[in-house]
Design a protein that fits this description.
Number of domains: 2
Largest sheet: 8 strands, mixed
Number of strands: 19
CATH superfamily of the largest domain: FAD/NAD(P)-binding domain
Number of helices: 13
Strand content: 25-35%
Distance between the termini: 26 Å
Structural class: alpha+beta
CATH topology of the largest domain: FAD/NAD(P)-binding domain
Helix content: 25-40%
Radius of gyration: 22 Å
């Protein structure tokens, strides 16, 4: 949910990033038979953040991506905004990334969870998470483009990270180590490969790791809106029979003082048709789902994106001298805004394992280290996978019996502060 006016072009990472040109990154000492400790394939938000964190600890990292990184700063590349939870935010600070974010990040201090039907008032039974449940913001809204700019700048400022992009690598993984050969020429060795190459991970497929996919028959519409009344740093998750509807607070601009990001999930086919409507009709449909009494008159800002929704999980997070992180390992429904945070939890667990082993002069690709990583991450990730899947299936229907049960359930959680706080602590990754 990125809007160009949010981020002045003078603040992009290009001023920093060009200083570490591809020629410098492809240093001859590395590509003429040199070595690194860790080779990360995939320079998305998870892979790049891991590279920065390891690099700051003195671990030698090669970060490979088939796409050039600077064009990813273009506002047309990604329309999303991320709700970065407290634990991942702390990690991004440790990795030296957070301070480079060029535009203000909006704190989420209140979350209202409601259930309803299209065009009807929300149920009087609701769940509200308030700031006192956490004693700090639940998360911070960061536009995808702003995070990309920060990652690029942090990579450029971390000397022990070699950025190889655009580049394609062929990996030969053996018990004794990994050989990395670049299609563009050059090769080097690594102790460990981290597959951060997304939902369609080539490395996962090449390793023969089985994958289970669950389609939802839903597509998310992602856009920004401006509104008449302030959001007071409050988010809304409104459950509807066709899919959940979320309003997430953004920092405003001079032109639009009050802004929010929208993630509107609807049935496949319908979502694409709604996204293609003229602005006035689109806003009408949007207000039917949100109710405009909270935010006043709504106007549409920027453009709209659509993203098909599905869930998936890898049956293992490890193979010989390789492990999976982020979307390569798991993909969940965005119903609780936990997708990217789950990827950051992977590297929050992984980083200290690798940094400690490196400090002690140990091999970073041993079966014991990989098994430790999987044991720390996969069971908790599978619980989150199941929870988001059950939530979507429970709420994305119009069954009156299920409606009563879920409304009583969310109202029950609302009335038990200890339970609310437990939910919040887990979602914040603390």
């Amino acid at each position: 949910m990125s809007h160009m006016s949010h981020i002045p072009m003078s603040h992009t990472a290009s001023n920093v990033f060009h200083k570490k040109s591809q020629t410098e990154s492809l240093s001859s000492s590395l590509l003429e038979g040199g070595s690194v400790d860790v080779c990360i394939v995939g320079a998305g938000p998870v892979g790049a953040a891991l590279a920065c964190r390891l690099g700051r600890a003195g671990v030698r990292v090669a970060l490979i991506d088939k796409a050039a990184l600077l064009p990813m700063e273009d506002p047309a590349c990604d329309g999303r905004a991320y709700a970065i939870a407290a634990g991942p935010k702390n990690f991004l600070e440790e990795a030296g990334v957070w301070d480079y974010i060029p535009s203000p990040s909006c704190p989420i201090e209140d979350i209202l969870v409601t259930d309803g039907r299209l065009g009807k008032p929300a149920s009087s039974l609701f769940l509200q998470f308030m700031r006192e449940d956490a004693n700090q913001p639940f998360g911070w809204m960061v536009e995808a483009r702003a995070l990309r700019i920060a990652l690029n700048a942090a990579l450029a400022a971390t000397p022990s990270v070699h950025v190889l992009a655009p580049a394609e690598a062929h990996l030969t993984r053996r018990e004794e180590g990994v050989e990395v050969s670049l299609k563009e020429g050059g090769n080097f060795r690594a102790q460990l490969v981290v597959a951060a190459d997304g939902r369609r991970s080539r490395l996962r497929a090449e390793a023969g790791i089985p994958l289970t996919r669950l389609p939802y028959g839903q597509t998310a519409i992602v856009c920004n809106i401006a509104h008449e009344l302030p959001h007071n740093n409050s988010a809304l998750e409104h459950f509807l029979p066709a899919g959940p509807f979320a309003q997430l607070p953004l920092c405003g601009t001079e032109e639009h003082p009050f802004m929010s990001a929208i993630v509107w999930s609807d049935k496949d086919g319908y979502a694409e048709r709604f996204a293609a409507l003229p602005d006035a009709l689109f806003i009408q449909q949007l207000e039917k789902r949100m109710g405009n009494e909270r935010l006043g008159r709504v106007t549409f800002v920027g453009r709209r994106w659509t993203y098909p929704l599905s869930a998936q999980y890898a049956h293992s997070y490890t193979a010989t001298r390789m492990l999976l992180v982020g979307d390569a390992a798991h993909g969940i429904h965005p119903i609780a805004g936990q997708g990217l945070n789950l990827g950051y939890r992977d590297i929050i667990h992984l980083s200290p394992l690798l940094i400690e082993a490196h400090a002690q002069g140990q091999d970073l690709g041993t079966p014991a280290l990989l098994a430790c990583y999987q044991a720390q991450c996969r069971p908790a990730n599978m619980l989150m996978f199941i929870a988001t899947d059950v939530l979507d299936r429970l709420f994305s229907n119009n069954n009156p019996v299920l409606r009563l049960a879920r409304d009583l359930g969310i109202a029950g959680v609302h009335r038990i502060p200890a339970l609310r706080k437990a939910f919040v602590k887990h979602a914040m990754g603390l």
